[in-house]
Design a protein that fits this description.
single chain; about 600 residues; alpha+beta; DNA ligase i, domain 1; OB fold (Dihydrolipoamide Acetyltransferase, E2P); about 40% helix; about 20% strand; globular; binds adenosine-5'-triphosphate
């Protein structure tokens, strides 16, 4: 397929807001891409070159792209920049300038999707001395030979700013329609995606071998598994009742999650967002190799910094300092990590996901008994709410976050929030429930004393995973330091959107809309019902939404580095938290 044709599909996608219509257009596109180009088409539509764990980034900034457009169209850099300022989007600026270019059109009129993809990979892999000019040259070459419409997407793709409003969930449904007979097959595609985290690979499997091929996909070393997530319940009684009798109650540590893959001496580490973070933690790699006596394994744990002298674990604000790109060795000495192993996904050539938790835990205890830097989480087995409660209190007193109760019979449910794991944190016991993680969809200009920052607050949304859209739930104006305000202003001004972004549903209007990209952790007093916000509105008989009361920015990080927009708190979770809050409230009164 020619890239120009792909651009036509993208243009149609940009023009529609109905999810059904989007799926129809996308499925047509995937069918036309066929076996030969479905992988590239899926990655391009996701706006990436490869899945995040491959760590291949474009390395193309606005300024570099402006130079490429100038070279391709014959306009000066200043003219390109001024067109960009007018349009607010470099893709549109390139499209306009291509329409008016005085340069003679280059002979080759269009590249294929595969050719463009391969050239983009080359752009991303070009580094070192002289790489800037080489990148400009390659991009200019593609833009020069493209139609104005194709130029728009050739420019937006490497800037990670496609603006079509298509999420992974919609891509999977479209693949199901194109190659597996209908939307019902999405569930099986999702299962495959959850264990390989590579949507291109899933697209290839279904296009080439249908559902049989998809069904035979298994956990593989060096392809991270999408993490299992926990539900919430407000009391020990409800946890025991829901999980059915005896449960495993593990301490819940507040550090960061690491998925470890080991094959012989080769060890790689992945974050909760499935990025390759191997380089950041040489001490963990060393510990895995020296403390673990096995050849091939995938396991997960929570990493925490601790004080070697006292053995005391440090708070999250200290631990998070270990996530850095420079000064790694020094920080590793200063803040050594302990990894609390809590699950095992693959062992000795075998997929462990379908084994019950009880067996996976036995394996962990057998493998991680002796080490200094890696050990199993502390836990008890109980069927008595009182015992669970005591263990919870003891954990809180020890400075931990709470507990994670686990269903002994449950398999590892990759990529989903299910009741096989249930978290109980201290905050549930008060009226205010857990913190929530929200996606920024807009921001407000500062007024009064905030005017100098050009930033007055955020408009935030939850993720509705059923409909693959973002629904607003709160305006947030407090909890920011001055530094955070200028940081947010600078980050958000780069992702401004000229209108409401395609997947955002809102009734209120911020001063500026932004593409859903960044996630913030928010604390609030309670969840209330509200006609102003779209969160849960479509799920409610009377059409009333949910909102947060007295929301404020929480925690040490300005935006959460370990969560993307689709990892934000979901509409369903907010509705469950609202119900939980009512129950706790009733008990107290
Ligand atoms: P989530 O990861 O569920 O989206 P979150 O990032 O806000 O939510 P929490 O709600 O605090 O985190 O809890 C889930 C996280 O707790 C896990 O992702 C994991 O990193 C961490 N964790 C700590 N101790 C354990 C444990 N014993 N078992 C499982 N996870 C644990």
């Amino acid at each position: 397929m020619l890239f120009g044709k792909l651009a036509e599909y993208y243009d149609r996608l940009e023009g529609v807001s109905s999810r059904l219509k989007m799926m129809e257009i996308l499925s047509e596109l995937f069918k036309e891409a066929g076996k030969k180009e479905v992988v590239e088409t899926v990655y391009m539509t996701q706006g990436t070159l490869l899945p995040p764990f491959e760590g291949l980034e474009f390395g193309v900034a606005d300024k570099l792209m402006e130079e490429a457009i100038a070279l391709a169209t014959g306009y000066t850099k200043e003219q390109v920049h001024s067109e960009y300022k007018k349009a607010g989007d470099l893709g549109i600026a390139a499209q306009k300038l291509k329409q008016g270019t005085k340069l003679k059109q280059i002979v080759k009129n269009d590249y294929s999707v595969k050719e463009v993809y391969e050239m983009m990979v080359k752009v991303a892999r070009t580094s070192g001395q002289g790489s800037k000019d080489q990148k400009i040259g390659m991009l200019a070459n593609m833009i020069a030979s493209a139609s104005p419409l194709a130029a728009k997407y050739l420019v937006r793709y490497p800037l990670a700013n496609l603006r079509m409003g298509v999420g992974d969930s919609t891509i999977m449904e479209a693949l199901a329609i194109a190659y597996a007979g209908g939307r019902d097959a999405k569930e099986e595609l999702e299962r495959a995606y959850n264990i390989c985290s590579d949507l291109g690979e899933v697209g290839k499997a279904v296009a080439e071998g249908g559902m049989k091929e998809v069904g035979s996909m298994k956990v593989t070393l060096f392809k991270p598994v999408r993490p299992a997530l926990a539900e919430r319940l407000p009391t020990a009684e409800q946890i025991i009742e829901r999980l059915g009798g005896e449960v495993s109650v593990e301490q819940k540590y507040d550090g960061f999650r690491i998925q470890v893959h080991k094959k012989g001496k080769e060890v790689r580490l992945y974050s909760r967002r499935l990025e390759n973070i191997t380089e950041m933690f040489p001490d963990v790699i060393k510990a895995v190799n020296s403390e673990l006596d096995c050849d091939r394994i995938i396991f997960e744990g929570e990493a925490l910094a601790y004080n070697e002298a006292t053995g005391e674990f440090l708070p999250f604000q200290e631990t998070i300092q270990r996530k850095r790109k420079h000064g790694i060795e020094e920080k590793a000495m200063e803040l050594p990590l302990h990894l609390f192993a809590f699950d095992i996904l693959y062992y000795d050539g075998k997929d462990c996901l379908s084994k019950p938790y009880k067996e996976r835990r036995e394996l962990i205890e057998r493998l991680f008994g002796k080490g200094k830097a890696i050990g199993p989480t502390r836990r008890i087995l109980t069927s008595k709410p009182k015992e669970l409660e005591l263990f919870f209190e003891e954990s809180i007193e020890g400075g931990l976050e709470g507990i994670m109760a686990k269903d002994l019979k449950s398999p590892y449910i990759a990529g989903a929030r299910k009741f096989s794991w249930v978290k109980l944190k201290r905050s549930y016991k008060n009226k205010l429930s857990d913190t929530v993680d929200l996606v920024i969809v807009g921001y407000y200009l500062g007024r009064g004393s905030r005017a100098e920052f050009g930033f007055g607050g955020l408009l935030c949304a939850v993720y509705n995973d059923k409909r693959d859209v973002f629904e607003t739930v709160s305006r947030i104006g407090t909890g920011f330091t001055e530094k955070q305000m200028s940081e947010l202003k600078s980050m958000l001004s780069k992702i401004k959107s000229s209108g409401k972004p395609a997947r955002v549903e809102a009734l209120v209007e911020p001063d500026f809309w932004v593409q859903p990209k960044y996630v913030v952790t928010i604390n609030a007093d309670e969840i209330t019902r509200s006609p102003m916000h779209t969160c849960g509105k479509k799920d409610d008989k009377e059409g009333v939404g949910y909102a947060l009361r007295f929301p404020r920015l929480y925690g040490g990080e300005t935006v959460r580095g370990d969560k993307g927009p689709e990892d934000a708190t979901t509409t369903k979770e907010i509705m469950e938290m609202f119900r939980m809050q009512k129950k706790v409230g009733l008990k107290e009164s």
